[in-house]
Amino acid sequence: MSVKKQFIKTKPVCKVTFTVEAKEAQSAAVVGDFNNWNIEEGALGKLKNGSFKGVFDLVKDASYEYRYIVDGVFINEPEADSYRWNAYAGAENSVLEV
């Protein structure tokens, strides 16, 4: 799993690329504050090498909680900027700072 940030100088957004290595998985998505935790909006496309990838434009100077869903299982990003406890989920969420 990885997160790549590309800041756009001419716009108040950051292009964020989420990649999940899950060769055996059938589906993967990234859900969080930036897409109202909506699986359809966070669907990642499967690549020929078996990983899943998606690019999202996120507003800069913000903090977002998020998690991956791989075949229905919630997973945190091991390389997240930080983690935040979420009482609703009863677990920590990954945090992305842009």
Task: Kindly describe this structure.
The chain has 98 residues and is mostly beta strands. Helices cover 0% and strands 55% of the residues. The protein has no helices and nine strands. The protein has strands at 2-7, 13-21, 28-32, 45-46, 51-59, 63-70, 73-75, 82-86, 91-97. Strands 3, 6, 7, 8 and 9 form a five-stranded antiparallel β-sheet that branches. Strands 1-2-5-4 form a four-stranded antiparallel β-sheet, with no helix packed on it. β6 (63-70) and β7 (73-75) form a beta hairpin. The radius of gyration is 13 Å and the shape is globular.
Short key terms for the protein model shown above:
98 residues, mainly beta, 9 strands, 55% strand
